[in-house]
Every structure is written in C-alpha cells, then in structure tokens.
Amino acid sequence: MGRITETVKVLLIANILFFIGSLFLGGYAYKLLALWFPENDNFGIWQVVTHMFMHGGFGHIIFNMFALYMFGSLLEQSIGQNRFLFLYFSAGLGAAGLQVLFSYVNFQSAYQAYIDAGFSPQEMQNMLSELSSNGRYNFYNVIPRETTEQLISTYKDPMVGASGAIFGVLAAFTIIYPNLPLYIMFIPIPIKAKYLIGGYFAINVYSALTGVTLLGPSNTAYWAHIGGAIIGFITMWYWKKNQFNQNRWN
Length: 250
Known about the structure:
Strand order of the largest sheet: 1-2
CATH class: Mainly Alpha
Protein name: Rhomboid family intramembrane serine protease
Number of helices: 10
CATH topology: Rhomboid-like fold
Number of strands: 2
Pfam families: Rhomboid (PF01694)
Oligomer: single chain
CATH superfamily: Rhomboid-like
GO molecular function: serine-type endopeptidase activity
Main location: membrane
C-alpha cells in the first residue's frame, strides 16, 4: 500500500466518529441519521447523505473502511480529490436511490395484498402508525406470513452504511486497474481486480435477484451495492473515455 490520501483519511475519520457517536446515542442516532423508508415518519431528506456514515456494527464498519483504505487512496491519486469525492458521494446517492426504488416496489406489492384481502387504507395507516411508534404488528390468517414480513421489514428497517459508495469506488478501481493482481485471505495466488471485484459484484446481483444470501447478513441492501457499482462504473468509464489521456491509465 502507498500512502493514505487526505480525502480517504477524512472519510475514514468521519465514519469512525459517526460510529462512536452512535454507540453513545444508541437508537436516537439511527432514528435521526439512518435512511428510513420515505413513508416512515422517521424519514428526513438529509438521511440520503448521513446514512453513508452510519453502520450497523463493528463488522460492518471494519469491512467498509478496510475496502476504502485498500482501494480509495490509489483511486484518488489517479483521478484527483474533486473527482474522487464526486464519485464517492454520487455512488452513495445512486445506491440509496436504487434501494429505495426496490423498497417501494416491495412495499406497494405487500400493501396491495392487504387491500385486496379487505383491509381499508385507514386500517393500513393505523397499522403502520402503530408499527412506527412502538414496533408492534400482527400476522393475519388471510395474509401470507412472508407478505407481512416484507411489508414490515421494508417499512421499519432503515438503511445504513457506506457500502454503496464503496462499491462505486471498487467499480471505478476496476475500470482503471482491471489487471492489477490482488490477494485475499486464504487464497495464496493473485487474482486480477476485474475478476475478484467482478465476481463479488456478481454475487450481490445473484443475492438481490434471488433473495439468497451468500455473503454477509441476510438484511444486506444488495440493490444499494448494485446501484453504487453502476454509478461508479459509468462515471469512471465516461471520465476515462472522454476526459483523460489514455496513457495515464496504463
């Protein structure tokens, strides 16, 4: 590893400070700064940015910050501070946007199932208000259990983490250094970046489409990972194709 760049250092410190603060503030920090489903009373527009600095546990923040440390500095050295910041935050915003979009699809599907079963909009509003205020909900025989779980999890589980922005960094890194050999634990041979990072992306696509978790916790926001990677890939591809001397990327 080369030296850590200034922007990456600031992002690392900011994420760590947010995480330490959340340990002291507990649920209040997540209520205020995590990204809630827009229909939830806890939602605030600022959360589309602040959620990138919140994490769900030690394992979550360690993995994200390790990836930022490993790939972020070399990427920033290649494209510059301003472009790195633009890519990082645009990937994070793209990740949030795609995750919210698919959350809306899941929520509306489950919501409509309740309406079709005879629940009125007012009854649904009362149920969601109770869920928001005290976390209570019921299962009904006329509604499949998985439908209720889909409605509840979409509505009450907030999105946290820098993973979407990190996936943008990884995708951009792959555009610049596709053949750079990388090593991972327990595998003693180098793997080219395009295969290692591409394979990790493919696993996330598979999990997003099937609901089967292969890596990480079951509540991972896979669509956020995909959204961040897409924004990072497109942004870096455009810059490389249109704004930079090709020799710089060799």
